[in-house]
Amino acid sequence: MIPFRSACFLCVALLLGAQEVVPLNLPAPPAGSATLQTALRARATVRALAGPAPSLAEASQLLWAAQGENRPGRRVAPSAHAKHPLELYLVTSGSPDLAAGLYHYLPSGHRLTRVADGTPRTLLGAVKGMQAWIQEAPSVFVMAGDPSRIGEGSAALNLTYYEGGAAAQGLLLQAAALGLGAGTAAGVDLEAVARTLGLPKGTQVLTLLPVGRVRP
User: What is the fold, at CATH topology level, of the domain defined by 36-214?
Assistant: First the structure.
């Protein structure tokens, strides 16, 4: 017979194991046919966004364009000393093949981990002063970073923001190539966004990138 205390520990272990989140493998981004020149001409800030949210394949391409690996251990966006301080999250209202929720992108292996329930309206809408076009967007990509991976002080913070800008541009160009509308958010309480989403300590939100269909 298993002692009572051991039985309790076993039950807890089984429960934690049952709650373990299995990463979602994303489809490999196709080569595509849109040229860089075409994407550059199409890139524009679009605030009139409609659903449905990006499909699994579209989300895969957008995430990869911002933080994916285009060679072993190295990402599409340039990184100072390859320290890779960025973390990319997706808040989506859901599509037929990607459920609503908050997701964390894992560049290694090109995978998504579901972090929490919610949508842009329920999660980002909880932030005081959140702009309507952001919380009403069918999906919002959250570009965040941990400057301590590079170093200390303003230099590390600046390098993190430079890298975030490069990654954000990659995502915006990919959105344009897919015929999606997208933009970057300004005037948002980014610290409040990090708290609301429960991001790890030391991780700062750099910008929000709402993405959806272009509303007629």
Answer: NADH Oxidase (3.40.109)
